[in-house]
Write a structure and sequence with these properties.
The structure is a single chain. Helices cover 17% and strands 15% of the residues. The protein has one helix at 37-52; strands at residues 14-17, 24-27, 63-65, 72-74. By secondary structure, it is of the alpha+beta class. It is built from 1 helix and 4 strands.
Length: 94
């Protein structure tokens, strides 16, 4: 499924590189992630910069540190290779 309203199997967005070198995606947002767009842009900017510089996000997922909170976000949670959350409610509420 693709378009304005797309979802991943467990309803968690995918922010990651693709198998095709130089291509990256922010997809599976189910249409509810629009308020997160600025942060997703920062995730992807860091991901692209670091992967293109040689970091291996697949074996050592990158971590984003929030500029205002200092909170650490493991970008592996949004990886195309993440384990599917079997306990997901299968909807936007998780």
């Amino acid at each position: 499924m693709a378009g304005v309203y797309d979802v991943a199997q467990d309803w968690t967005p995918i922010y990651d590189r693709t198998e095709l070198a130089g291509f990256y995606v922010a997809m599976g947002t189910s249409g509810n992630q629009f308020k997160n767009a600025p942060l997703v842009g920062r995730f992807l900017a860091m991901l692209i910069e670091r992967v293109e510089a040689g970091d291996d996000h697949d074996s050592e997922p990158l971590r984003y540190v929030g500029e205002h909170t200092g909170n650490v976000i493991n970008l592996g949670a949004f990886s195309r290779q993440r384990a599917i959350n079997a306990s997901s409610a299968g909807n936007v509420m998780g």
